Structure formats: structure tokens, C-alpha cells
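INFO batch 0412 | record 1 of 1 | parsing
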Amino acid sequence: MGVIAALLAACSAGTGPPDTSGHTTSPEPAPVHTAVPTVLILDASGSMTTPDAPGPRIDAAKNAAKALVADMPDDAHLALVTYGTKTDSSPQAQAAGCQDVTTLLPLGPLDRQGHNTAIDSLTPSGYTPISLALEQATAQLPTDGAKQAIVLVSDGEDTCGRPPCDVAAQLHTQHPGLAISTIGFRTDGPASDQLNCIANTTGGMFVQAANAKQLAARLIATQDVQAAKASLSSTGFNGIDLGTSAADIRKANNDFPDVASSGRVVVTWRDCDYTFIDGVLDTIAPHDGGRTIDGITSGSKVSEAIEFYGQPLGPVEQDAGKDWLTFLADKDKNFAYRMAIDGYNSTGTNTTGTITRITLCHCAPAPQPFADASTADVSVAGSDRMAHLASVRLARNDGFDRLVLEFTDLVPGYTIGYRPLPAQEDASGKEIPLPGANAALRVVLNPATGDGWDNGTRTYSGPSTVTAGTPVVTQTTAAGDFEAVLTWVVGLRSKVPFRVLKFDGPPRLAIDFQADAPAAQPTAAPPVATFDGYGPVKIGMTKDEILAIPGWTEGHLNVDAYSTCALNTAEGGRALFGGPTSFGQPQSDRIGTILTPKGTVTDHGVGVGSTPEEIRAAYAGSQFTIDDNADGTPMKRGLRVRDSSSRQILFYNIEADHVGAVDVGADRGESGCMEGAPLK
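INFO prediction complete | emitting C-alpha cells
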């Protein structure tokens, strides 16, 4: 009962106004906790095998449940109900899976050994019939209207169709004394909303738990809802959440002070300070030093806070002569616990000190958009169980495009990464058209199927190509479903950073593509060499004309051992300027020869990689003259093609039996630089 006793000592949760006389009053005795008949529902669906608690979620749930059993008073009455243990989570098992609710132990006097044995027997595998579990749990409870409780631990939302919130409301009508508290273990979005609705409808408490330590403490805390609400949860205090407007708080608490709608305002109410920014609650600071729902309080060690909340979000801060550390409370809302530390010291990963004060604030550093995104491959191993694709969705969001692949049972392993165009189908190698795409991302899911490869039952009946007018993603297209490997290809207008997110309830894999990243320009085709030049650099240009081309600077000038008249081309070749018959300062300021980079192709369709026979065939007309080994430089072997209408040539350097490089220019003298008057 240690944690519960600690919770009872939090700020006053009474409904009357605080004492404003200035007199010191003795604290009222803490209320004695009296156990009410309780049914514990433990989720044993297939997703509870996910190893992120850390370790399997079911192990964390078992340990938390046994901690609850150990903490309950000896005269407690407890029942144990579970779901998801008798079927798998395949589509064909859904009908049976949605009836898979088991009462492991009926309501009766607490039997710690018996309850622990039943808890240890759980093996997760199936569906999540929350509504049926609530009904079966309620059937264990008295019908005399007395106080009674159900505590539900789940890592996802109901997967069987009946809205649990509606069922909870009906049960509460039949059992007015019933309060259903829910714990969302690593839940988010719709799953958290559903569990929160169940609790709010019945006067229970909803809390989220991000790890095994939090799960154990918060499960125990549900045994005294009023005491738990009188502590700093991850979102608020005494039923008042951060982010709530002062007007809404006053609607629920008519003695709450008036708050101006602009600026920073601090009001004191029931021994706590509430700070508002422009009329919205930003910080809660209990006068007694504050306590978290996990039992961290004034006098706790920093190491204890780290066990619950992980490492501080940033370095120690100095404020009013105190050292303060900030710990994450709610990652989705950027809420944090801010703790004053006495005797703070940090060496490496060892942080010591004693907590003297705790506040809850909207002060967690805002996550940087796509700080965790990159263009590198992402690969995660899956289980041996087959996953079944249910739907594929594509949508535009603020700052990113999101692709969602939803499954009927679980998220499989995956390898996701960019691959060269053109995209191809699995097995057949057939090209997949991706109109408008300049990049392709391949999504390989294993083991997974959508067309019923494993048992003939098709679970995905949507289109093979999904589009949504998104700014970055052009489309996503099915690329294969064979032998437990399911593949989709995503076409994108440019190669942008992406991130992969996994969600439960229902199982979903989301891939976000950064839409506000600088769009990469489509890769242009390499410039073509002609008798006149290469790309933007033309025979006869002056240095000034070349340096006027975007991207060219004096830094491209290069003096090498061969001559003093070389200018590197932007593509990696060199442009040679006219010069004398012996090495020295160039006499001409106009380009005479361009040594193109490797990979160049000419306007006749031949170039690097072509054979001498292919070059001769390409210039077979009477307009051209072809000479072998006619470079004037004994070190070079090649074919010189002359355009009879000018002095210009294309020289194909031959390496072994194919072209290794292409030179553009005119006849050259023995020095290697252009001889004579400037070129036309």
C-alpha cells in the first residue's frame, strides 16, 4: 500500500474553498483506503507479444498484475478476466476470437498464490473483444448498487466491432456504483480515446503507461481513484488537464478564480498554483511539493524518477537558485514533469540528487519535425505469425504525406528503402510504371499476405494502385504477394527523408514522407557531345563567356603538367584553350578543345562504351572523314572523326576494344594546345 498511501498525501482534493485566514491548520487525517470488489481484465491479444516494454508487453502486464495482487489489502475481493488466449489473430479466427473471453478466477477473497498462478498462465495470441470482456467482468460483481470496480489493462482498441464506450455506459446504468478504470499500455490515438471514454463514462480513471515501471505503479493507483486524481498524472491534476481553458475549468469548478484571457496569469486555488498563458492552463504547481501518480514526491531520489520517465529531456537548468531537471510526462502533448533537485550531480549516465519540488507543465521541448527521418533503409524483424493486409491508405498531412498499411491481426516485419528506377514486380521482374516519379521506395513485408496466399482467404480487396493527389507521393502500387512476402512500391516526385511508425489497435504501419523538404530536381540527362561543344560549353567561347555560365568560377581553372591552358568542365572533363607550339602563356583566349567526362555520348548515339565498328557505322556518310590513331599524340589510340564542313573533330579514345572517352575540338599541334588563330 506504499504508493497508495503516498498518493493520499497530495494537494487537497476537497470541494470546499481553501483556508484564507492566514492561520496554520493541521492537515486532515488521510482517508483509510477500503478495498471494493474488483475485477481485473488483462489483455492477452496477439499484440501483447510486441517486445517494446522493454521485453514482451505481456511480461510487463503480468508483473504489474502481480504487484497489484501483492499491494491489495488482505480482505480484498478480486476476480481475474482475460481475452485473446484461445485463438490466433488470423481472419478466419475472428468469429471465435471475438467470443474469446475467459474468467480465470471468479470474484472471491484474495488468494495471492492462486491469482499469481493464473496470471502466469497467460499466453497472448488472439483478438481484443473489450466490450464482451466488460460485460463478463460486470457479471461477476454484486447488483446491490454498492461501490465496485473494473480495471482494464489494454494495449489497443476493441477489434470486434461493438463500441466499448457504449457498452460501459449501459453497464454503469445497471450498476450505479461501478467505476471502470483503464490503463492504455503504449497506446495512442483511437485506442487511447476509446479507453479514456470508458473511464470518463463510468467515473473511473484513464492513464497511459509507457513502460513496465509505469504500468505497475499506475495499475496499483487505480485502486483509489480519488487519491490517484489528487496526484500529478501525465496530463493534469484533480480532473483538470493542462491545455484546458480557464472558462472550461470554471464550468466544472464554480469557485475557481477568474483568469484574464491574455498574458501570463498565476492563480492559487486549493493549495496549488495554476499558471495560464492567454487563458489556457500551462503549469500546475502544488504547494506541498507535488507528487506524481507513480509515487515520485519531494524526498525521492533523481534515480527513481529516471526509472519511471527515462533520462532528463535536457541539461540541468538554473532557476531561482535551484537546479531543475525536466522529464517527459506525455509525449503526444509535450507535457513534462519539472523537478527541483537538491545536491544535483551528474557523471556520465549516473545522476544523483534529491527531488524537492515537482510541477507539471506544458514545457517538453517540441519535437523537431522529421528529426528521426532519413533516406536510409529501415528494417525490423517480425514474428513467425503471418500478417494479413486489410487496407492501404494515402493522405496529405501538414508537412508530410502519410502511407498507412493496416492489418487485421499484427504488423509484420519489414524492410523499407529507396531503390533505383524503374520499379519492378517481384518474381516476374516486370516493370511497374510510376508516372511522374523520380524516385521509388520499396516496402517489403514478411511474413505477410493480402490475397490469401497462406490459406486462400483474401483480406485485402482494395485497388492495386492508390493515389491521393499528395505533393510528394505520386502513387503506391502492389508489387508482389508470394510465399509470405508482400511488396508495395511507392513513387515519389523526389527522394525525401521518410520515417516509419508502428501503431496498435488496429495494427498499422505508417510511412511518413517529408513534404516540406527542398524538392530534389529530376536528374537531367547527361549533356550530349557534338562537333560544336559539350553541354553549355561551346568551342570558340572565351574564358569570360564560360565563367558566365551558372556554377562556373575561377576555381575551375587548373594548371597541370600537360599544359597551362586547361579549364575543368563542370561535368568533370577539361576545356583546353588555344596556345603556342611550345609550353608557355596561351596566345588565344578562346576554347579549342573539350575533354569530356567518362560516360559521354555524342549526338550520333555512340560514345563511351561503343566499339570502333559502331563508330564507323554511325559516321558512314560522305560528310565525315574517319582516321585511325590520328591524334598527333603517340600515347593516345583512337578514332578521329572530322566534319568536312569545318575544322572541328570528335576524337574517340580507344581503351582495349571500346571507347573510353570523347574529346571535342579541332586539329591540334604537337604541343597539345590549339595552334594558330582563335577558333571561330
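INFO post-check: The CA atoms of residues 410 and 623 lie 70 Å apart.
INFO record closed
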